[in-house]
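Consider the subject:
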Amino acid sequence: MTTASEIATAEAAYFSNADYAEVRSAPKARAFVTACRKLLIAPSSMVKGANSISNRIDLLRDELRDAQKWLERFSPDDIPGPIVTKTDFRNFRGYGG
């Protein structure tokens, strides 16, 4: 990957999937990992005319490692259910409702 448009696409995927942990989304986490990998193999800086792009390799490695660890811990069965539940006690013995 060497073109500015490919790097821009990877950066867009990086930013749009960075909230994978907050929304508890394994697909977003996998997309984030892929974006980190693409940005890591891209040149760390690129200059074309007046435009320049640079990446912090140490930050990308940390973000990649964090996302991979999150994916290892993630289980679809761990997704919490609804916060509010309603119980019906109308048929409960001794309840006058």
In short: The radius of gyration is 22 Å. Residues 57-73 form the longest helix (17 residues). Strands lie at 45-48, 51-54. The helical segments are 4-16, 26-41, 57-73.
